[in-house]
Predict the structure.
Amino acid sequence: GMKKYKIGNCNEQADALNVALRANGYKNVNSVSLFAYNTKTESIRDLDHIVVGVDLKLPKNFQYYGDDFPHKKQLIEPHNGSIIADPWAGFVDTGKGYIQRYKENTNIFSPLKKDEKLMYGVLPSFELTDTDFAYLKTFYPGFYGARPQPQPQAKLPEGRFDRIKKQVTNIINKILPKIS
C-alpha cells in the first residue's frame, strides 16, 4: 500500500503515525476505531475509520477492542485530556474537540445519526523492539528520534497540548510522506 503506491487508507496511516510517535519517544499511544453508539437502542455502528489516541486514560483492566465487533464495555468516550490525531483527515485535536471536527466534516466522515454519540474502540498497544528501532534508524533517519528510555505511563501534563499538537502535526505532514 503506502510504500509501493505512495497512498494509504486511514488504518495504514494510523499505524504509520503510531510507529512514528513511538520512535520519537511518545508513550501511551493507541490506534482507535471509531464507532457510533445509539444511546436509546444501545446499538453500535462501525464508522469504518481509525485514528491515533495519545493518553486516553484507560481504566485498569480495560478490555481492548479486537477483531470482533465490540461490546459497549469495550468503548470509551473521548475526553479533553487525550489527544486524537487523524493523519487521514490531516488534523490533531483534543478528545472532545475531535468530536466537533467529526460532526463538522460530514463530507469526509459518516455522519452521526440522531441519538448517536462518537465512541472509541481502543486497539491494543504495541512496543517497538530493538530490531524495529535499528530498522527505522537505518532506513528512515530523518524521522527517527533518540531511542526513548522506558518511562512509566505518565499523565499528559496540563498545557502541553499545543506543543504536542505541533509535534504530531509535524509528523503527519513531514515524516509520514517520507515513509510512504
Summary: The CA atoms of residues 25 and 68 lie 31 Å apart.
